[in-house]
Amino acid sequence: MLAVSVLAAVRGGDEVRRVRESNVLHEKSKGKTREGADDKMTSGDVLSNRKMFYLLKTAFPNVQINTEEHVDATDQEVILWDRKIPEDILKEIATPQEVPAESVTVWIDPLDATQEYTEDLRKYVTTMVCVAVNGKPVLGVIHKPFSQYTAWAMVDRGSNVKARTSYNEKTPRIVVSRSHSGMVKQVALQTFGNQTTIIPAGGAGYKVLALLDVPDKSQEKADLYIHVTYIKKWDICAGNAILKALGGHMTTLSGEEISYTGADGVEGGLLASIRVNHQALVRKLPSLEKTGHK
Q1: What does the alpha-carbon distance between residue 249 and residue 228 come to, in Å, rounded to a whole number?
Q2: Is beta strand 64-67 parallel, antiparallel or unpaired with respect to 104-112?
């Protein structure tokens, strides 16, 4: 499943890149976000979603797949997987894990950072696949279509990405949403002091990669990722799985683990960290959730 998830993210990314380079996005709005911004969709979202969904569905027809974009049941497609497993995955994942299909939920984000995609801010764009077992994220893939960088990890099995050697939790660099940051900037500065650096960025996938040792030169680096408004699970599941596999944490602002079953959104904000005392940070940020929705 890791191999086909990586392939799905890459194939979706190929569609995203092809549409962007054609400069014909067929951009439209699906409505408004809770913050009142346009919730945009492009043909890049639609075509990537189609490739990713049907590749995964054909390979694993019995698992539940949740995806950001609507899948037209009257327009089904069979996209075959050649069942080849790349060498880097075989090397890291020596012993596969078998689980019943009914315990598996797959979350697809066919184009993360659509707003930035329409603005041609390519570095923020990712395609993502996450596999959760009994609601717990166990496998994550984040692919950057425009630099062709792919990060993947599987909890208790292996990864092709690592944490950095050190992080600053006293005056951290904090990556936040550039489009709906709520009050996170103000509260973060109040909590950590004026020496704190705030990095506005697009895309939840990009923000998680900011916490890791990523060779992509366009990738900014941060010590923490904080989000204070409502967020969808397909935006964060892959990053949650990767952080968890590397010993990091992604929780609500009150420190609760996020379950990847049921509703497709998370109300309690988000705190993501690695190689720092996550619970101490949770205790340090008690006012963020209350302030973030004002």
Answers
A1: 16
A2: parallel
